[in-house]
Request: fold
Amino acid sequence: MSDCAGAFGAFYNADIGGAQAYFIAHDGAKANGPAPSSGITGGTIAGHPIKIVGYGCANDTAASALKEARRLVESNGAQILIGPLSGDESIAVANYSKTQPKLTFINGTAGAQDTTLKVRSPNFFRFNGDGAQWNAGVGDIAYRKLGWRNAVVIMDDYAFGWTSAAGFIADFCAAGGKVTRLYPPRGTTDYSSYIAQIPQKFDGLFSAVGGTGTLAFLKQYTQSRGAFKKDTLAGNIFLGDPAILAAIHAADVGALVGQPTNEDTTSANAAAYISALKQAYPAQTSSLPKPGTLAALANSVFTVNYYDAAWALDKALTAVKGDLSNGQSALHAALAKTSLPDAAYGPITLDQNRQAIVTNYIAQVTQTGGKPGIHTIYAVPNVDQAFGGLFTPTTPSPGRGQPACVKHKLAWQGKEQPASFH
Reply:
């Protein structure tokens, strides 16, 4: 289940391809065509055949995701659902999973904090970090290394935008910084009124504007204000996504990016993952957000998180020999204990809320020979959803004005590790 429309509709086949690449490379399935949404045939897990009963086609809204989840489960008979893509969607699906306790739901790549920290459905599992975890260390580096003291934070006005910004705000304020917050609606096309609200003087700007809005905001900002000065721009995963980097502006070179992937790594684990993508979908296709091969999007959260979700499912199903009896109780217990120590970009384990504990990376946008790229500079291992105790089931959810800007001691402050590329 992914988005085929809305702000993230372009990533539909990248998501589906990530999950199915695992089944193709490791379980004997075969792709029906270069576009992942063409489906797969064959393949078994623990001796049981894999059958894709349908693809969820949402549009980044909770209503569409809930409608599609119900269709897949109640009409198509899905026993296990992988997805959704986006923040509000995942909160809706996690709540829906409570009404289907005998089925299994594994998050796709959605990063809203409430999905696991507040909903805490016993049959919903997330093997990727939330949006706040993906920005651990970015605010601290901006404060200590770039000298920011007053930052502007512009965020999509919905669950993922709030969560993503919350990670930067909590991190930056913990170090001693202060923030000004702006909230354009998700899917905004004209950012002029929000750009007008940005103070003329600020130390840095953090963008948590995503999807189609990322390039629109940056383009309109530079047209209105000129290029960002050196060391004054940072952003979330969208600023570093391979598909968006392909169209990035020269003005964004040098920007800091928080992300759970390490494009510079040459580790055997990353190589194995990329090899699986190449094996599964070797042909170029225009169905992807960046036309080409799926392996070219290996560092996109839309590809790797769906791949890891399928991997975790395979591992747990294998552990229980495909047993889905007794309301899938054995599978639920196995998933809660499943870890991915060999994941491409660092080990993944789950906490008591079935939420991933991950390594976060801090990268920088680069340009070589006129071509944009990204270079990883720091790693922050073992980032959990609690974020040093700042986020709990009883603290206010990320949102307008939340989290509060408070100084706080975080385990990684001043201890971000220079990134390793092997």
Observations:
- The first helix runs from residue 12 to 27.
- The chain has two domains: 2-126+287-344, 133-262+359-418.
- The first strand starts at residue 2 and ends at 3.
